[in-house]
Amino acid sequence: MSQSRWVKIQLAIFTVITVIAGMVMLFGYIRVPSLFGVGHYTVTVQLPRAGGLYQNGNVTYRGTEVGRVTAVHLTDTAVEATLSLRSDVRIPSDLDAQVHSASAIGEQYVALQPRSGTAPALKEGDVIPASRTSVPPDINALLAAANRGLQAIPGDNLQTVIDESYTAIGGLGPEISRLVKGSTQLAIDGRANLDPLTAVIDQSQPVLDSQAHTADAIGDWAAHLATISHQLQVNDTSVAGLLDRGGRAVDEARRLVDRLQPTLPLLLANLVSIGQVAITYQPALEQLLVLLPEGTADLQSAVMASADTAHPGVALDFKLNLNLPPPCLTGYLPAQQQRTPNFEDAPDRPAGDLYCRIPQDSPNAVRGARNYPCLTRPGKRAPTVKMCESDEQYVPLNDGFNWKGDPNATLSGQDIPQLPPGSPPAHAPAPPGPAPPAPIAAAEYDPATGTYVGPDGKVYTQADLAQPTSKGKTWQSMLTPPTSN
User: Which letter does DSSP use for residue 24 in this model?
Assistant: First the structure.
């Protein structure tokens, strides 16, 4: 019988659809290639018992299906399951194989849980030992335990248990629902952030070790906190009075501060500067506070030695060593510019610093300003704070005890008094022009005795300067140097 062309076209289309559907069925659902091992490799899992696992069960990796169970058989010591895994999914060999149930009635499957992502991948013929596997508890044991639990409840009191349970959770449906939803969302978020959570757990060991190492300190802190809590409990009345009257006391303090304005802010601002200095010199202040009681005790011991005697007094032994060592004059004004004690006026102090300016390791005036320790620069010594804070180093005027040089300059080129850094020199060069005559050094002397103070600070005697000279001057006396007292 002849068929029309339209019928032939329909039959061809139907044939193509049938072939495509058959291919999808064979390769997509039935997965015929996998039946012959194409694109798959086999791995053996050793289990302590079958745990309800059956052939054709699913195998998952991180929740994704990656293969099936092709066989489950007994061995002499355990149970072995053969897994057929997809070759296109890399599964690390450092993992655990766990048998789980998809529902309460069974449907066991194998879940592969990786321990590390850096291990080599599984390959054909690998064996997952029983130490890395686990199976769910036997359902019969669970039912038996549940039965024993029910039998433990007295029959007469079962109604009471049900009533009390209803009283405990009755009406809490919305709260329990929120609790379940929150727990579910927490589990979902934890699953989504599994790697960070795993990293936190893996890296928590140092923190836990530090807590273990400081267990004694934590115990002491808890004990001290308990002591404070006990004191608060014992002094509950006082604490209550403080809380009751504290507000009024604060108001009084606020009104006091208001009355002290504007002098109080100025005082506090000045105290800030003093506080900064105190913080800088904290080690020196601590040393002073340590030595002060000892010094006070020494003074008291000097008085107490003769307290009960007929003539009480201070028991001190003075040993006067005059001019040993000699006074330091280097760095001070020369003797010609020094004022005698008979002047009673108060002239302006010369600009700059006056202190003993001999070498720092000199045995003379070892506690002088030149040896002040710089607290902010350990190991450095300087006479002023500015020199301590700067890179400037102390430079002595000379290596002796006495003042050297003429009254207007020094051998080292430094000014007397010492001027702060950046100050113009005390003896600036004169402008161009005729040079003034050199100053004549002069010293006052006592006409009665012929004594005078030399540039080095020592007292000299020249007998021919005295008024009652018994004999005239000779050329020999003129060449004889004055004698030092």
Answer: I
Q: How far out from the chain centre does Cα 442 lie?
A: 66
- Per DSSP, what are the bridge partners of residue 134? 98
pLDDT tens readout for residues 87-145: 888 889 889 999 988 766 668 899 998 888 788 888 888 999 988 898 887 777 778 88
Q: Which of 82, 108, 98 is nearest to 134 (CA)?
A: 98
Give pLDDT tens digits for 138-188.
777 778 888 888 777 777 777 787 788 888 887 788 888 888 999 999 989
**Residue 253 near residue 344 (C-beta atoms within 8 A):** no
> What pLDDT digit, counting tens, does each position of 217-253 carry?
888 999 999 999 999 989 988 888 888 888 889 999 8
Structure token pair of residue 295: 């010094």
Task: Tell me how far apart the alpha carbons of residues 112 and 97 are, in angstroms, rounded to a whole number.
Answer: 5
* pLDDT the model gives residue 382: 93
- 341, 366 in Cβ contact below 8 A? no
Distance CA 249, CA 359 (A): 59
3-state class (DSSP) for residue 457: coil
Nearest to residue 98, comparing CAs of 70, 58, 145? 58
384 token code pair: 């002023």
Q: How many whole angstroms separate alpha carbon 331 and alpha carbon 415?
A: 9
Q: How far apart are CA 250 and CA 245, in angstroms?
A: 9
Q: Are strands 95-103 and 106-114 parallel, antiparallel or unpaired?
A: antiparallel
Dihedral-angle region of residue 59 (phi above 0 means left; psi in -120 to 50 means alpha; beta otherwise):
beta
* CA distances to 103, 184, 227 from 177, in Å: 22, 10, 44
Say which residue the tokens 């004059």 belong to: 329
b/e 168-193 (16+ beta carbons within 10 angstroms → b): eeeeeeeeeeeeeeeeeeeeeeeeee
Q: What is the pLDDT of residues 426-453, one digit of tens each?
A: 655 555 555 555 454 556 677 777 787 7
Q: Is the pLDDT of residue 11 over 60?
A: yes
String of DSSP letters for 96-136: EEEEEEEETTEEEEEEEEES-SSSPBP-TT-EE-GGGEE-P
The DSSP code for 335 is G
Q: Please state, rounded to an integer, the average pLDDT across all residues of the chain.
A: 80
* Helices H / strands E in the chain, number of each: 13, 11
Q: Is the peptide bond before 325 cis (omega within 30 degrees of 0)?
A: yes
Q: What does the pLDDT look like over 259-288, one tens digit per residue? A: 877 777 788 888 888 888 888 888 889 999
What sign for the dihedral angle of Cα 76, 78, 81, 87? negative
Most confident of 4-18, 177-191, 297-311, 420-434: 177-191
| Structure tokens that stand for 210 in this block | 């530090």
408, two tokens: 């207007």
